[in-house]
Amino acid sequence: MRPTSVGIDAMAFHGPECYVDMEDLAEARGVAPAKFTQGIGQRQMAVVTPCEDTVTMAAQAGRRALQAFDIDPDEIGTLIVGTETGVDHSKPVAVYVHELLGLPTSCRTFETKHACYGAMAGLTSAADWIQAGRARGRKALIIASDIARYGLGTPGEPTQGAGAVAMVVSPDPRLITFDPEIEGDYTRQVMDFWRPLYSKYAFADGHYSIDCYLDALESCWHDAVGKAGGSHEAFALSVLDACFYHVPFTRMAKKAHHRHWETELGRAIERDSEDGARVEDSYRQRVEPWLSLNADVGNIYTGSLFLCLIDYLRQATSEREGRPISLFSYGSGCGAALSIARVSEGAARFHRAIDPGGQLAARRRLNVEEYEEIFRACEESDRNDGERIDPARWGLTGGLHYVGTADHRRRYTK
């Protein structure tokens, strides 16, 4: 029997144990703090140590989601890790996570990559797997895990970050129920952001990438309208309780919401006009309240959109249950999707289980010199047969660490 509803049944976040304050970084780089805190909308930036990688963050986020929502690992029939910062050209991050979480050998496991769109691709694939009746009562675990790194003193430095968001997809979900009738897709080959095999860092055409992002949003909206029979009434901005966008930096959400309005109205909107004031008011109500976690973590690529969703759900009250929300995912290169979901009945009672506030408050604030030392140490951590990395050197307290590569094999210790 095929399920009548599918969506997100559990969620959790896990990020690095250290961060740098953006005002400290601005002072060290000789720029006005407002350029970072207001210009791109970031307050803090998560910093990975050499002992934290895509695998450790994914595994710990996955474990948090399963434990917080009392889900037995044996219930998981599909594991997908969406990432653009894999640890091997061939071996997926997902298979390491599969072992670390103790998932059954009958669980199909793979990695998805399409820049920041990878986790959304995994999420929709998992929903299709369940709706097709192939899950046979099992659930899917989707994890977005990434490290955004651009180099010390580069223009992209303040848009770095790291973290993982885990989501369990199932029938009769406790948090978010997808609307299978409303979705839009878009794909086009563009060179707005990419990382060749020979480079540790990405290349980007920043302004062009923003244009590609906004064009993809508009195209997804039109595709969704076409699939909905030419009407957008079911997902008009006036009926949406919240709008979630991919957030490489929090100010991008404001640009996206403005384009969302222009697309729905079918014309340009001047920011100082009456319509511009309506857009600003809508942004403050439907977007801005859910950007706090992103402002304190930074860019986490595939997980950025879903970190906003966690922020929303940790603040949710029973009044929000049943209300529609929009989710827009964009991955450079490019691929994008726009979908609609509703807050499940009873979701509000899980707000404490979802909230990562305590985890973020426990992080260690680095000074800029410490941050730069850690950054440089990470450059050496992936070399074969290097010195074993000691988590104690970086003051780490978590239970899972990457400790270096020996005989061309990655090593992890609990």
Automatic annotation (TrEMBL):
InterPro entries: HMG_CoA_synt_C_dom, HMG_CoA_synth_N, HMG_CoA_synthase_prok, Thiolase-like. It comes from the Bacteria. Keywords: Transferase. It holds the Pfam family HMG_CoA_synt_N. The active site is at residues 84, 116, 246. One of its GO terms (biological process) is acetyl-CoA metabolic process. (3S)-3-hydroxy-3-methylglutaryl-CoA binds at residues 150, 255, 299. Coiled coil: none annotated. GO terms for molecular function: hydroxymethylglutaryl-CoA synthase activity. NCBIfam families: HMG-CoA-S_prok (TIGR01835). Belongs to the thiolase-like superfamily. HMG-CoA synthase family. This is Putative hydroxymethylglutaryl-CoA synthase. It comes from Wenzhouxiangella marina.
